[in-house]
Amino acid sequence: VMFTDIAGFSTLSEQMPASETAEMLNQHFSILVACIEAEGGTVDKYIGDSVMAFWEPDAAGDNIDRALQAARQIRTQVTQDNERRRRDGRVAPAVRVGIHTAPALVGNIGAPGRVNYTLVGDTVNVAARLEQLSNDIAPDGDTRILVSGDTVALTADKAGLQHVGRYDIRGRDGDVDVWILA
Description:
Blueprint: E1 2-6, H1 9-14, H2 18-38, E2 42-47, E3 50-54, H3 63-87, E4 95-99, E5 105-111, E6 114-120, H4 122-137, E7 143-148, H5 149-154, E8 161-168, E9 175-181
Parallel strand pairs: 4-7
Antiparallel strand pairs: 1-3, 1-4, 2-3, 5-6, 7-9, 8-9
Helix pairs in contact: 2-3
């Protein structure tokens, strides 16, 4: 599961007209969705300025590598877009990303008449908390990516992964092993 969020979005949106905010979000989401879908991911939903996406297990077992590759592509594309935005004098949003791998409840969930195919449970919560934790422990930059040790243990491509320690995740018993995708 991958969660993304624009760092400081509330402050940014206070300073921009609604049309500029919508343009920035639409451009941002276009970048993220293209990177996620190019690597076989599914965008589950937009939550304000956030994206929740997931990769279903596959026979080849490369879904985890593809999620990390999507995160790498998000970094590249956001950095390039932000360079253009800065040259044009526009807001250049930084994005935070959290990725966690574990079993999740997947299916149609909701109330009668308002059901969504989605994921719920601890896996989703940990990915969201890693995205939030990146504010505190990831280096500054256009993109900050934190990955759980559970994900790192299953990936074949460990390029750019740096262990940063174990962290208490709000709402969860036990610490989570955390890595930065640099």
